[in-house]
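Please produce the structure of this protein holding flavin mononucleotide.
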Amino acid sequence: MKAKKKVVIVGDVRVSALKQNSKHKPASKGRSGPAVPATTATAGATGLRPRVETGNTAIADLGTPFVAQPTLAERAALDRIDLAVDLAPDHGGLVLRSPILVASGTFGYGVEYGEVVDVQRIGAICCKGTTRRPRAGNPPPRVTETPGGMLNSIGLQNPGVDAVIDKYGPIWQGWQVPVIVNVAGESIEDYVEVARRLDGVPGVAGIELNISCPNVGKGGLQFAIDRDAARAVTAAVRRATDLPLLVKLSPNVADVRPIAKAIEDAGADAICAINTLSGLAVSADRTHAFLGNTYGGLSGPAIKPVALRIVYEVAQVVSIPIVAIGGVTNLDDVLDFLACGAVAVQVGTAIFADPELPVRLGDELRADCLRRGLTSYHPLIGTALPKRTGAPSAKGAEYRP
Ligand SMILES: Cc1cc2nc3c(=O)[nH]c(=O)nc-3n(C[C@H](O)[C@H](O)[C@H](O)COP(=O)(O)O)c2cc1C
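Below is the modeled complex.
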């Protein structure tokens, strides 16, 4: 019998979930312990087996899930585990019910996934990058696969902040899941204007500043790679809105720590780390760069070690919450980021292969806490950080580009 396919188009990426033969029983590769939701359990329960297609090939098939049903007693114990996290504890609070969020640009505006995922069970949705005016984005091709990841150069294609508010605000308002609007711009005025328009809009729970954008006022230098520009844009947006303010770091710098500190000092509530790494692909005939925009942003498992290093370093110089992003595909990735000081993680590229992953990771984290005898995941945070106090270590500088 031919498999039924549900297809979601998110930007340039085609996400499809294959309806599979329900008689097929997967082999268990779960950890020992009670029969609690394990890796890919939800996908198994719904019979949806996701694949990702980025134009040329179907690159990912995450294999067949392990399904285990908890008993009623185990269910009750799982429900008692506290996964709540506050991403703006010093500024009115942005409390999420789960520390697993979805990353900007990989989950649209959330509505696109409504038929595939229970979006209300995600910790928060960071929506597509939103600008003051509509943007058509970069010329194609805009996406290509790489070993362990993908390169994208979407170029912030979006309908502009007013259209986003009009179209999605009323929908988001009825949702339990908080929506954090990812904001981009080419000048401080751009960022401030978008923040002002979002301020007080029902359904908008917070702002995530994407500062990996060329600063027209500084001749195209990115806000994210210049400490003073990062500080200035954060401070200006802070003055313009009472919304919880998250600022997203770029990995494309020699030392991210002074930038992170400047962002904290300028009033950010939380830091998100990291955005994509700058990369390039070559055309098949090797006569030009493959992407229409020449450069693209590398994401996916290939960047996880870089993201871990940055989270580890930033956690030693700031005291605001850190949300980790970069190559999360399974619970071990989540636990690694928590150990390095993140209080929450975002799932990005992996969603294209497995849209239910963010929900499932919340279930798996809960189950992991139960196995460890914890009532909250918070004791898992920062366990890999150096124990000593005093000046942060400069070790690692020799490995930086
Ligand atoms: C197709 C695509 C579009 C993206 N668009 C945005 C964006 O609009 N704003 C932003 O801050 N980050 C954007 N990102 C970066 C992701 O939010 C995330 O930081 C990055 O992909 C690393 O996480 P990952 O390895 O889990 O994908 C985009 C990433 C991808 C793959």
